[in-house]
Design goal:
Largest sheet: 3 strands, mixed
Strand content: 25-35%
Oligomer: single chain
Radius of gyration: 19 Å
Number of domains: 1
Number of strands: 3
Strand order of the largest sheet: 1-2-3
Number of helices: 1
């Protein structure tokens, strides 16, 4: 998580949000449904909704097109 202050003020939890980063190494496509409430990212007494950014990277995923265009050379 990368913390972000929503406005210039004294640094405190009430003005903070964040960027959540998730890195996966999957060979198949996976649908990712992210909900900050389900993750309990914000405190339970948080009254106002806050924006957040979620970045998901699926590094191991290759499509059939990628596989056709991928050429590996081995030099010995």
């Amino acid at each position: 998580m990368i913390p972000i202050a929503l406005r210039e003020d004294r640094l405190r939890e009430e003005i903070m949000t964040g960027i959540l980063i998730q890195v996966k190494d999957k060979a198949a496509i996976e649908v990712v449904d992210i909900n900050a409430d389900e993750l309990h990212f914000f405190p339970a007494d948080c009254k106002l909704p806050r924006p957040y950014i979620m970045i998901v990277m699926q590094l191991g995923l290759q499509t059939a097109s990628d596989m056709r265009h991928c050429t590996m050379y081995l030099f010995i």
